[in-house]
Amino acid sequence: MRDRTAATSTKVSFFELFFDLVFVFAVTQLSHRLLGELTPGNALQTGLLLLAVWWCWMYTTWATNWFDPDHPVFRMVLTGVMLAGLLMATAIPEAFEERALWFALGYTAVQVGRTLYGVLVTRGTPLGPTFQRILCWFVPSCALWIAGGTLGGTALVALWVAAALIDLAGPSSGYFVPGLGRSATSDWSSIDGAHMAERCQLFVIIALGESVLLTGVTYAKHPYGAAATAAFALAFLSSVAFWWIYFDRTAEASAEAIATCPDPGRVGRNAYTYGHLPIVAGIIVAAVADELVIAHPTGHTTAGTAAAVLGGAGLFLTGHLLFTRTVFGHWSRPRLTALALLAALAFAHPLLSPILLAFAALLVLAMVPVWDLASSRRTEEPEVDFD
Fold first, then answer.
1. Would you call 315 exposed, middle or buried from its count of C-beta atoms within 10 A (0-12, 13-18, 19+)?
2. CA-CA distance, 282 to 286, in Å (whole number)?
3. Measured between alpha carbons, how far is 387 from 384 in angstroms, rounded to an integer?
4. Are 223 and 39 in contact (CB under 8 A)?
5. CA 179 centroid distance within chain
6. Mean pLDDT value across the chain
7. Residue % of the chain over a pLDDT of 70
8. Which has the higher per-residue pLDDT, 377 or 179?
9. Packing angle between helix 72-91 and helix 14-36, nearest 10 degrees?
10. Tens of pLDDT along 316-354?
11. What distance lies between CA 180 and its chain's CA centroid?
């Protein structure tokens, strides 16, 4: 079959966009699960499920970067991945209860099935050893996912955490396997950086779209009072601020940077595979915060609401800070300053109503693109240097 670099175009295909629909549903399921119980335990559980969902989507993105998604055989593989991913997504609300095994089986089918295909079609090619090593890492991690889903209870949590740690360690360790060695990021240099960047940008749009949807649905369920309407407007403007921070300058510049860098595999791993996870998590948490503020805009700000409002913005900014650091090689002062201001608001939250806290967080977010714009006018290469 054709690899992606041999295809006539490296633009995102329509089938890839169709594939993403499963993950639109998964993101919605994750946000609803987190909203159902704002406790540290449920937040950790939802984070673990998000990691699994993100890992399935991200590894498939690498696969569609290397292989032509319009090839009939690979398209059938992706169809199977979609079906297994949909099974995972439907199990998310009860993934730590009676549907744990179904979630684990869906995850295993996605990761092992797609990787087996990669092993078969890359035999005798430079990518072959990499797929063999990846499969060797997925076999034990997926065994732990399935074992946890079978046993349930405390064992489930322990085994799934262990499985997630194995999954997280794989790319950074080069998928080291005794006898097979490890993969260097230069071994992955055949990736199309522009395609990788566009795929991750589209996932950010998925998360933002879910946030806007949740905001609209929540507001429609409540009386159109002045406070709720103001909270609704703040929620929408927060989504705009997230979009502005991510897309206004860094999205295009980062795509150009990875496309021209000498080791695109390293940037793809650090900036996109790892770096985008907190970005997506922050948008999901912020969507939960929007619903809480719209539902209860005035009165006392609970610890859960404050954690959602400030934590969503903080996660997003932390992820974007690490992303820009990886791609452009320096720390962004606007993002570091914004994180410090959010930390200060955490101490002040008992003095503020939910809507005032949301307004303060929005001002912090809005400061970042304004600072970026002002800085760009003082530099010769504004698309790279944000300081």
1. buried
2. 6
3. 9
4. no
5. 33
6. 91
7. 94
8. 179
9. 10
10. 999 999 999 998 888 999 999 999 999 999 999 999 999
11. 30
Among the listed residues 375, 171, 376, the one whose alpha carbon sits nearest the alpha carbon of residue 275:
171
Q: Phi/psi of residue 222, each to 5°?
A: -115, 155
Q: What are 50's two structure tokens?
A: 């998000």
Could you tell me where the DSSP H helices lie in 186-302? 193-220, 226-247, 250-260, 264-267, 276-295
> Are 224 and 34 within 8 A, CB to CB?
no
- Helices marked H in the chain — which ranges? 14-36, 40-66, 72-91, 100-121, 128-151, 153-172, 193-220, 226-247, 250-260, 264-267, 276-295, 303-328, 333-348, 354-376
Residues 201 and 250: their CA atoms lie apart, in Å, by 11
CA angle 18, 23, 24 (to 5 degrees): 85
> Contact at 8 Å (CB) between 357 and 341?
no
Torsion of CA 52, 80, 184, 199, to 10 degrees: -70
Kindly report the length of the chain: 387
Contacting residues for 315 by C-beta, under 8 A, at least 6 apart: 278, 279, 281, 282, 285
Tokens of 288: 């939960």
| pTM of the full structure | 0.92
